[in-house]
Design goal:
homodimer, Rossmann fold, 14 helices, 12 strands, DNA-binding
Chain lengths: 338, 338
DNA sequence: ATGAAAGCGCTAACAT
DNA sequence: ATGTTAGCGCTTTCAT
């Protein structure tokens, strides 16, 4: 069965293409009778409009392009769900691409997405290579950079400072009496935001005459299993640690599981600290420290920005939307160790 | 800065639109000199082709529409990543939509996606309402229904039988000596596949003269926190159970955490059984039973099917791709209770 | 190897 | 309230 066109619907309804178009779109100045005739014809032919033609003709799309680095932990899916929610009711459609934390791939994906003439584009982070930035600037649409705040935005910026998140966590842990820190991370060469958190954390340690006593860093992407494995490696020689800072909650959860299996002092004495405030982390049977990243809200804000920037005569005057993650689960050192 | 068009590139290169088009696409019969002139001009104008025009003109898109019910646990993001991977290198682009387990919303989303004239469409499940099925059939493109196998597919079908998954898990648990079962689930009115698993499980229990001793079912969507909460509710009166079957691994993980906090007999004696085989479930500090759904593979298979159905002269002759989830973590009942 | 003409399906702008 | 004309930016087809 061939797809039917507006022309066929119009013919079936005995009106012109234009009248059929207006009736279908619910535009003013179509008599009730005519509208019903057209709607009926469309129904009978199971007509589905062709957005390619619509958008080409009207010079506008309802598309928002979104590029995220990964789908393998729950953080970015939540951002995407937030964007979808922020767009809901606006008639706009998010189109997603996954860069796998690869800047070359990201460039290609952005290029492909731009070729669909989206009305706005959301990209993750502020550290795109120059040629990607140039391409985004040339696109002449609102560019919304999300998650990170540490850098120079092209246009709109919604996120948090990961450097500061690391600093804040370090300060909170120091205030709780922690002094002997380990660090466990992964894929730091690709996950720049995890890097910035680590750098911020280390900055504060250094200011206090401290540093990481132990480090375990792996090239693979973060996962619970990897966090568990690296923690086992770190704790095997029974180092004198009272806290381990992880690159994120997945890794930290693995760390907690490792401690639970080791039992004894590992569990009680070493505070596990992560980042994200995943639902998982909050439901864990033992407390871990974490900073809650407002990823859903970041998505929603980006979605709303996109619709405003497109719909209204004038886009939002506010360019930067800054969030500060809330720190939870920081417990004081066990009295016996003070 | 206005977006430049092919015409402008052609003018800048001193050739016709057609030649520029051929040069840009790398089509045969363009002299090397000319090609380079065009490429240079395109580069200078930072030309990005307009896919709307391309697709309208050529009557084909590189789009694969994908509709999933949710992004709030890791299962569907993994399916999406699989689809992206299965499409990689084909030049095709996946476009995602989220239905929130709402069939009306699903209908609208599918309609919207079809208006972009995708080359294939991937939808979750086999239980779309009739009018949605009709719309899909009228679209005259390959329809790939994923995840579920229990029902009548429109065209291609990639997934597993959830009824059978429930049956198999029940048999495995019975074989391990379990007899007193509880059930904990959520959103069963919307998550039809969880329903089918429960029904299959119950079927086998009934065949063996058994049934669920206790049930806790909530309307909210599944989450670790909800699984934990419902488990606490179920275990508060200390019922005599040796196994709890959960609607999925998120719920089951919450159940395990509840047991860990309760400690004592709850932890050792009650086997927690879920569904999906999440990485999380496999790294947990105590074993839970689960069936590993091959969600990534399902996604990849769907992606490959889409590209084959579109690219090749003839699409895959195989219409149904059936997977059987592997069951792990079923432990025998503690000897003292036999 | 290159170009000109026609048209994809729709809407904007301008009649009537 | 309805219709007509032109054109969105590209590719297809047919010339040359």
């Amino acid at each position: 069965m061939r797809k039917s066109t507006l022309e066929e619907v119009a013919a079936a309804a005995g009106v012109s293409k234009m009248t059929a178009s207006r009736a279908l779109r619910g535009v003013a100045d179509v008599s009730k009778e005519t509208r019903e005739k057209v709607l009926l014809a469309a129904e009978r032919l199971s007509y589905v409009g062709n957005r390619l033609a619509l958008s080409l003709s009207s010079q506008r799309t309802n598309l928002v392009a979104v590029v995220v680095p990964s789908m393998s932990n729950i953080v970015f899916p939540e951002v995407l769900a937030g964007i979808s929610a922020g767009l809901e009711g606006s008639g706009m459609q998010a189109v997603f691409g996954i860069s796998d934390y690869d800047t070359a791939k990201e460039h290609t994906i952005i290029r492909d997405m731009l070729s669909w003439q989206p009305s706005a584009i959301v990209v993750t982070g502020l550290d795109q290579p120059q040629e990607t930035v140039r391409m985004l600037q040339n696109a002449a649409i609102p560019v919304i950079q999300i998650m990170d705040l540490d850098g120079t935005p092209i246009d709109f910026n919604v996120g948090l400072s990961h450097g500061k998140a690391g600093e804040d966590m370090a300060r909170a842990l120091l205030a709780a009496g922690r002094r002997r820190f380990g660090y466990i991370g992964s894929a730091l060469n690709r996950d720049l935001r995890a890097c910035k958190r680590k750098a911020g954390f280390e900055r504060v340690l250094n200011e206090n005459g401290l540093g990481f006593v132990e480090q375990q860093i792996d090239d693979a992407f973060s996962s619970i299993a990897l966090g568990k494995h690296l923690t086992q490696q770190m704790l095997a020689p029974a180092p004198n640690l009272d806290c381990i800072y992880y690159s994120n909650d997945d890794m930290a959860t693995g760390g907690l599981f490792a401690c639970m299996e080791l039992g004894g002092s590992a569990l009680g004495d070493i505070l596990i600290a992560g980042f994200n405030g995943l639902d998982l982390a909050l439901a864990l049977p033992a407390r871990i420290a974490t900073s809650r990243s407002p990823r859903r809200t970041i998505g929603e804000t980006a979605g709303k920005l996109a619709r405003e920037a497109v719909a209204a005569g004038q886009p939002s005057p506010q360019k930067v939307f800054s969030f500060v993650p809330e720190i939870t689960g920081v417990s004081a050192l066990h009295p016996s160790r003070l």
